[in-house]
Amino acid sequence: MSRKMKNKVLQRLKIERIASEGKCVGHHEGKVVFVSNVAPGDVVDVRVTKGRSSFMEAEAIKIHEYSDNRVSPFCEHFGTCGGCKWQHISYELQMTYKRQQVVDQFQRIAKVPLPEVMPIIGAKDTRYYRNKLDFTFSNNRWLTREEIDSGENFERNALGFHVPKRFDKIVDINHCYLQGGISNEVRNELRTFALKENLTFYDIINQTGLLRNLIIRSTVDGQTMVIVQFGEDDPAGIDKTMGFLKERFPEITSLLYIVNLKKNETFLDLDVHTYAGKDFIEESMEGLKFKIRPKSFYQTNSLQAYRLYQVAREFAGLTGNETVYDLYTGTGTIANFVAANAKQVIGIEYVGPAIEDARENALHNQLSNTLFYAGDMKDVLTDDFVSQHQRPDVVITDPPRAGMHEDVIQMLLKLSAPKIVYVSCNPATQARDVALLSEKYKVNRIQPVDMFPQTYHVENVVLLELKEQ
Ligand SMILES: C[S@@+](CC[C@H](N)C(=O)[O-])C[C@H]1O[C@@H](n2cnc3c(N)ncnc32)[C@H](O)[C@@H]1O
Question: What is the pLDDT of residue 2?
């Protein structure tokens, strides 16, 4: 099998199972074929998009037999929008497949003795569970095949999500099942207003247009933050847009805007202006309060984040006497969450403003036993740092998708804390790191948690305990 296979059509491929990243697997003449957007049990014709000596990647072009595992996707945008790729699979099976991904990655990559992987902690809310959505304005709406074939002229302005792998095309979203509250109304009514008032939608190629991006953040108790990014510094147009939102949606508790004349949509380095209300919203968890500012990270599924933190705290098994290191602490949410059960908690995080939020949250929650430090983990977590603080009894670590830097792992081996609680959104890198840590640690518990129903993403918590020497 080789690159020559590209564009070849393979007929009646039986889809066998789900592999990593949500791709499904079939076999053709003994070679693995990865196919997206199908379900185990389907029989499909596929076109090869990538041919390699040991595997192929392919796209489904015709479905002959639908798997019994399929359910009808509930969203009108399913298939075009890349948001909820697993809507065609029942939630029960999604949970089974997610747990299986953890099992597979740990068996394939970690290759260490493992306890049984616990059944995944599923979400009660499988729709409207996100507290943050990010929509893009564009003058280049994605047209369906039927629209193109009809030859008619269509409105090309859009407000919605990027088409997967297309930076320049936006699916115009009519209803999104990911965020509840007033999210759908705000987006749709703002678009209608902008079209009626002839406000310009952003042109990504020429970098022109007033309306650029819309972010909606919400809390479990119904506070809403709306941030509009403008691509032009046009005070009259900005006031018209923001004035509309203020008047039409008095329930917005934090109405903010940003003028962004840069090439990209990130705004960590830009000023955020308050048009109405406060410059933050506040999430609560077990009586703790977390201020969420426009630039702060907060787990995007608040209810499941609570479940995740409960698992981490339980695995940590704190008695009140421990020094806990919370690595990759973000805005200090886990540190705040476990502080009442520990002697002291030390949080480390790369992003300076997040550490300021973490300190403010701790103050706000009247926690006097937390300390936070900003910097790259491998540079902060050094012998000097450890000698200035107490050695940890428990390390909680929650790195980004890439996992931990090898220097950090070496430092953890050197520190030899009795327990490491490893939280991860990527079981593959987690399994890789666990293999390295297995030099001194054994894996005692593995608990997947579902933070993102309708997607293949899975969060996983592992308890590592020091082996007896
Ligand atoms: C998955 S988030 C963890 C967030 C936090 N534990 C929570 O639950 O809200 C990973 C965090 O690691 C931080 N980070 C990424 N690379 C880092 C590095 N090299 N050193 C320190 N922190 C880093 C990111 O800024 C991010 O806040």
Answer: 55
- The catalytic residue positions are 425
Residue 327 has what pLDDT? 98
Mean pLDDT, rounded, for 144-169 = 87
Q: How far is the C-alpha of 427 from the C-alpha of 98, rounded, in Å?
A: 10
Distances (CA, A) of 345 to 84, 298, 333, 377, 410: 37, 19, 11, 16, 21
For residues 382 and 378, what is the distance between their CA atoms, to the nearest angstrom?
A: 7
Radius of gyration of the chain (CA): 24
Give the pLDDT mean for 123-136: 97
d(CA 106, CA 361): 35
**Is the Cα dihedral 354, 359, 360, 362 positive or negative?**
positive
**Residue that the structure tokens 């020497």 belong to:** 469
How far is the C-alpha of 211 from the C-alpha of 256, rounded, in Å? Answer: 14
Lining residues, ligand 1, CB within 6 Å: 297, 299, 328-330, 333-334, 349-351, 354, 376-377, 398-400
CA distances from 424 to 86, 116, 399, 413, 462 (A): 21, 18, 7, 19, 9
Give the span between the Cα atoms of 422 and 367, in whole angstroms. 24
Say if residue 121's pLDDT is above 60.
yes
C-alpha torsion 33→39→44→48, nearest 10: -30
* C-alpha dist (Å) from residue 38 to 8, 74, 89: 18, 16, 9
121 or 149, which is more confident: 121
Q: Locate tokens 């939630």: which residue?
A: 91
Cβ-based neighbour number of residue 76 at 10 Å = 12
Distance 422 CA to ligand 1 centre (A): 13
Q: Tell the burial category of 304 from Cβ atoms under 10 Å away from its Cβ (0-12, 13-18, 19+).
A: buried
